[in-house]
Amino acid sequence: MPLRFYNTLTQQVEPFAPLADNTVRMYTCGPTVYDYAHIGNFRSFVFVDLLRRWLRASGHRLDHVMNITDVDDKIIQNAVALHQPVEEYTAKYTEAFREDCQILRLETPERLVKATEHIPDMVQAIERLSETGHTYDSDGSVYFRISTFPEYGKLSHTDFSGMRSSVRVDVDKYDKDNARDFALWKAPKEGEPFWPAPIGPGRPGWHIECSVMAIKYLGSTLDIHAGGVDLVFPHHENEIAQSEALTGKPFARFWLHSEFLMVEGQKMSKSLGNFYTLRDVLSRGYAPEAIRYLLASVPYRKQLNFTFDGIKSAATAIDRVRNFKLRLESEKFPDCTNENMAARTEAASRKFTEGMDDDLNTAEALAAIFEYVRDANTAMDAGEFCAGNAAAALELLGRFDSVFDVIQPTKQSGFMEDSEVESMIADRTKAKAARNFALADQIREQLLEQGIILEDTKGGVRWKRK
Ligand SMILES: [Zn+2]
After folding, report:
1. How far apart are CA 99 and CA 105, in angstroms?
2. How far is the CA of 456 from the centre of ligand 1 (A)?
3. How far is the CA of 31 from the centre of ligand 1 (A)?
4. What is the pLDDT of residue 159?
5. How far apart, in Å, are the Cα atoms of 439 and each of 370, 407, 435?
6. How far, in Å, is the centroid of ligand 1 from the Cα of 29?
7. Residue 401 Cα to ligand 1 middle (Å)
């Protein structure tokens, strides 16, 4: 079975291949830099990272554009409240976003583009839409008239034919139930920043920036447009209306949307006290790769329940793979090749591919890896794993890690809690009891890197901070 994705536009699972020269032209909606991004945002960005990595593993090249929304209502409101220029305010959160992405090992898209650096392009697009009768002006703002685009609603599969025309909206926050004409260009209110333009002073609406930057860099028709499911309506619906009204061509062939993230079974919200930025979670001492693993482990079209127990299980899962890799690299195996084991490795590799090809079914792909690790460990314990099987096993782990990217531990700069130290010492004691001295030494090294010194005494292990 070939690589295939569920396409929100057609509501079908369809085989995927890029349209031209084996290069996937992809646009994904980036952050609005008015605050630190939360773990719900990062679920979506981790999904996009897996998508990138699997497209590349499937032999395609990438041309991926992601926007940084660095002007919108909330940004202006917050910057004004702090008496800061908008650029200064957004620079801080743009930098924070880049750092967070790096911590979570998210690849940087080929082009990371800022809305405020494309204002003239947006003005030109709005002028063209006006020339072709898709807009109207009101109080210095320009609106897209959605009744001029009969296919409006085709992405969210909603029939808007009975809608009232000329009902407008100009805030960046939308009512999800109603289709409205939306602002392409907003006249400035008192004290707000604006750009001078032939269409009057103002600033762009949120939707037009994505259409304009996508078409500018990737052409009229993208292979993939992706984002969180909350963007389907109205954001992506509006992107389609503007873009197709501009070019007369289909805007994107595949639309992929990742589902919501819940926290401990509830919708994340500030009022429930379960609202977490990535930084909040990291400050509790969890390893970034465990957070990455948890966000990646649930297939993107399923709701993900984010729990702190879940991060701990993720860390355990990662340890299992790391320990297996360590065994492969450090144990002495009999000098032979076990044909059954070779076939088992090949089957695991195939199952891994099949899982990922199946609309990025990460749960299936991970199951293939962990069942294999269990079987291979059993074979090792029984002396049935041969030296001739090691290279293929390491290659399989390499394939797994080229997508999931969790094996390499993050160098921790933070303070290690006593309980964490004790738990690592307990792991080391267990490793020594099992005569796995390589693992025991590795744990000692890890602790030393954190400034923890171990002393083996008759009464057990003692430790101190450097
Ligand atoms: Zn967008």
Report:
1. 10
2. 57
3. 9
4. 83
5. 19, 15, 9
6. 4
7. 29
Q: 204: cis peptide before it, omega within 30°?
A: no
- Residue 217 Cα to ligand 1 middle (Å): 14
Residue 116 contacts residue 70 (beta carbons within 8 Å):
yes
b/e per residue 57-83 (b: at least 16 CB within 10 A): eeebebbbbbbbbbbbbebbebbeeee
Number of neighbouring beta carbons within 10 Å of residue 97? 24
- Determine the distance separating the centroid of ligand 1 and the alpha carbon of 28, expressed in angstroms: 7
Name the DSSP class of 233: I
Distance 210 CA to ligand 1 centre (A): 5
Separation of alpha carbons 354 and 2, rounded Å: 9
* Ligand 1 geometric centre to CA of 39 (Å): 19
Q: Give the pLDDT of residue 464.
A: 82
139 CA distance to ligand 1 middle (Å)? 26
Q: Which residues of the chain have pLDDT under 70?
A: 162-179, 412-415
Q: Are 123 and 97 in contact (CB under 8 A)?
A: no
pLDDT at 435 (0 to 100): 87
The alpha carbon of 55 and the centre of ligand 1 are apart by a number of angstroms equal to 21
Q: And the tokens for 374?
A: 């269990």
d(CA 10, CA 306): 30
Say what the pLDDT of residue 171 is. 61
Tokens coding 370: 């962990």
What's the whole-model pTM score?
Answer: 0.87
| Residue 21 Cα to ligand 1 middle (Å) | 25
For residue 439, give every residue at least 6 positions away whose Cβ sits within 8 Å of its Cβ, in sequence order, or none.
Answer: 323, 326, 428, 431
DSSP 191: T
Q: What is the dihedral of CA 7, 10, 14, 16, to 10 degrees?
A: -60
Which pLDDT does position 446 carry in this prediction?
A: 84
CB 51 within 8 Å of CB 299: no
Cβ atoms of residues 339 and 29 within 8 Å: no
Q: What angle do CA 389, 391, 397 make, to 5 degrees?
A: 105
Q: Do the beta carbons of residue 53 and residue 403 sit within 8 Å?
A: yes
